[in-house]
């Protein structure tokens, strides 16, 4: 088969879009969207996406290596698998996005905006999912692999979309075995890819934050070794090596939104993700509205005062245990 990553970065798809590689059938649907089918029938459908943010390259390197192993017959496949390189144009330029943050555009949001590279891609990515998750009786998982902009008290962590039905504890346990030190549960809907697959297709879906974003070739892949190992085991249908400690669980209690130009975030620019603040701390202020820590303690995630007006400048968490 042609080299998936290289051709995707070059903006190409092969002239013959299907073929066989050992015990697998591959179908190249669109730029950066590749389906693999094992020969033996399976009731499990897995989506692995990466580079939804174009500057988050480490997950692309992990996925590319796993894909090579699958196609070379060195790794067995026990799922129907859809591999997605989210934003190839942004990835080729090592930019988070070109016009708009792709991971804010799903579930009815891209339709409200003027057409851009990212609105077109969000529509394609939604279509690819509906096409792939066509069988209601299949078990559905979606792992969206990212790296974070800043350092973190939990090096690797997962963010899970708001959901009406309970999470599969096996899924949550696998996330721990994949090296995630914390799980953050959203309480409100969002425009992320994992919110879309969870809400529309009841997929067990998680956004995995796997360390800090660095350019291609500069990633310290040892930091990601445990996750890569767990992914290989998952694909083959084997158990991953068990985590020594279960991830700490948090839920989002408040979103800090930059409503106006006068928004001020009091969390320092270089604060790590999961920095704790005691009760009463003033976290942000916007036109007289004050965001103050209500519970005994709160943890801050993704603080970013530089976002556009109307967007999220941070999340406030409380611990669940
Ligand atoms: Zn990201």
TrEMBL record:
InterPro entries: AspA/AstE_fam, AstE_AspA_cat, Aste_AspA_hybrid_dom, SuccinylGlu_desuccinylase. Pfam families: AstE_AspA_cat (PF24827), AstE_AspA_hybrid (PF04952). Binds 1 zinc ion per subunit. The lineage of its organism: Bacteria, Pseudomonadati, Pseudomonadota, Gammaproteobacteria, Enterobacterales. Pathway: Amino-acid degradation; L-arginine degradation via AST pathway; L-glutamate and succinate from L-arginine: step 5/5. Belongs to the AspA/AstE family. Succinylglutamate desuccinylase subfamily. This is Succinylglutamate desuccinylase. GO terms for biological process: L-arginine catabolic process to L-glutamate; L-arginine catabolic process to succinate. Zn(2+) binds at residues 53, 56, 146. The active site is at residue 209. GO terms for molecular function: hydrolase activity, acting on ester bonds; succinylglutamate desuccinylase activity; zinc ion binding. It comes from Phytobacter massiliensis. Residues 247-319 form the AstE/AspA barrel-sandwich hybrid domain. The gene is astE. Transforms N(2)-succinylglutamate into succinate and glutamate. It is an enzyme of class 3 (hydrolase). It catalyses: N-succinyl-L-glutamate + H2O = L-glutamate + succinate. Its cofactor is Zn(2+). Keywords: Arginine metabolism, Hydrolase, Metal-binding, Zinc. Residues 44-234 form the Succinylglutamate desuccinylase/Aspartoacylase catalytic domain. Its EC number is 3.5.1.96.
